[in-house]
Amino acid sequence: MTRLVLGPLLRHVDDRCATIWVETDLPGEVRVLDFTAHTFTVHGHHYALVEVDGLEPGSETPYEVALDGEKVWPEPDSPFPPSRIRTIGGHDELRLAFGSCRRSPAAETAYGTDTLIAYAHRLAEGGDPPSVLLMIGDQVYADELGDKMRKFITDRRGDQEPRGELSDFEEYCHLYRLAWGEDEAVRWLLSTVPTLMIFDDHDIRDDWNTSYTWRKEMWSQPWWRERIVGGLGTYWIYQHLGNLSARDRAEDPLYAKVRAAADGGELLDEFAERADEAPETSRWSYAHDYGDTRLVVVDSRSSRLLTAERRAMLDDRELEWFEEQCAGDFDHLLIASSLPYLLPASIHHAEAWNEAVAEGAWGKRAARIGEKIRQGADLEHWAAFETSFRTVAEDILKVARGEQGRAPAGIAFLSGDVHYSYLARVTTPSGGTPISQVVCSPLRNPLEGKFKLAQKLACNGVLTSALRALARSAKVPRPPIRWRMTKGPWFDNAIATIEIRGRVSTVVWETPDGATSLAELGRAELST
């Protein structure tokens, strides 16, 4: 009998269609409601995405999963309600929950209460479900492993390089199973709440694509090719495919080839290696419209332009795509980037200074030191790509002022990564459209005490003037926009929810209050 290895995961959902993702132990037919899909195979692992169509807008439909005619979901004696598909309904309301940075499995207690577990229990007890759950980075930690993952690696390859890290496709598959399948509450949550995702560095490796120097160092390692190919290949299967609408998947030539192959492993490996070596050949970013709200999810890791001559957060092709997505008539523009666009001002100036020094502003010797500081202190956010930061600022101000279509009621960047949560407001005149940076991090991976203290110091503004002067000494121009932190920082495990009704938008941050409930940290208006 064919059995579920992982899933079901409810992925992209719109007003009439939904995608159900599963991994199985054998090839076979997967049925959800009256819709079926046959599994495809990659390196001996079997997957399927079932596309359910013809649903009513704003409807709730319980579903089961059958493999080769045998029901395998829900599992017998599950304490959770039936999994449901909730379609998007109407143009006026949206509830988008988001967060980042989740260490798992839940059995390891060093990282505090798992926000997703507490969230699952609240929904199971009748709490209002979100329209979509957006997980914006570090869904898995490929370089900071738990006990179960370390044991799997030791049993498989002993102490071979890379020690304490994943090495290939097979190990990534096991890590995803631990992250999403070990806890029954999380597994149920992912089966009943539509999820979208985008990677950050730990999904591949800490500081992934920090700089041209970093890339050269990684590719000099004999184990790196299998690591990056396995990381991007499994990301394509476990995260990326479910981000796409059924139409977008149907237009993906790689998806068609992999499904048609007896085993698509070689095809996917070739794609993944090419995607890393030539980022312009692939796209991980995506955008969806929910009524009058546009969500743009930006790849701020793999699409970086990093050569000896140029560096940019987004290569030219990706920047053009981003600008196209931000133009148009909508009430709300939500831009998700795993890395905060607006950091606390003192950190922004420090990263901008470091980029200038590492690129030679103070000479070759200082550049080498600057590169070591950049990698050692993780100075690689938008602020460390000054040209890209400036371009995006100009683009967003045009949107806010109604120069790219009707001005939205609010523009918000949604981010994670930094392991604390906050709200920052742009204070530069923007034609009446508020521009905000909303950060929610971590879902489950709080900062250690010494790092928390350093971030608190950075957030209180005492060092801002001194660090701006330091940046100016390296000939860094003043940022084209001004902003200030107005909420936070909060260092708790947390989840945030953007609530949109008509042209009104608010955000609420919540933290686990015990193992099965949530307590409010703060809230704010995001629109006019």
Annotate the secondary structure layout:
Layout: E1 4-13, E2 18-24, E3 29-32, E4 35-38, E5 40-42, E6 45-52, E7 60-62, E8 65-67, E9 70-73, E10 84-86, E11 93-99, H1 115-124, E12 132-136, H2 147-157, H3 169-181, H4 184-192, E13 195-198, H5 212-219, H6 224-243, H7 246-250, H8 253-260, H9 265-277, E14 286-290, E15 293-298, E16 305-306, E17 311-312, H10 316-326, E18 332-337, H11 345-358, H12 364-376, H13 386-400, E19 410-415, E20 421-426, E21 435-439, H14 449-459, H15 464-473, E22 483-490, E23 495-501, E24 504-512, E25 518-525
Parallel strand pairs: 11-12, 12-13, 15-18, 18-19, 19-21
Antiparallel strand pairs: 1-2, 2-6, 3-4, 3-8, 5-6, 7-10, 8-9, 11-23, 14-15, 16-17, 20-21, 20-22, 23-24, 24-25
Helix pairs in contact: 1-4, 2-3, 3-6, 6-9, 11-12, 11-15
InterPro entries: DUF7800, Metallo-depent_PP-like, PhoD-like_MPP, PhoD-like_sf
Pfam family, one: PhoD
Protein name: Alkaline phosphatase family protein
Q: What portion of the residues fall into strands of 2 or more residues?
A: 25-35%
Structural class: alpha+beta
Supply the CATH architecture.
Answer: 4-Layer Sandwich
The number of distinct structural domains comes to 1
Q: What's the CATH topology label? A: Purple Acid Phosphatase, chain A, domain 2
Query: Helix count, per DSSP?
Result: 15
- Flag low-confidence runs: none
Going across the major beta sheet, what is the strand order? 14-15-18-19-21-20-22
- Provide the CATH superfamily: Alkaline phosphatase D (PhoD)
Cα end-to-end separation: 57 Å
**Helix content estimate:** 25-40%
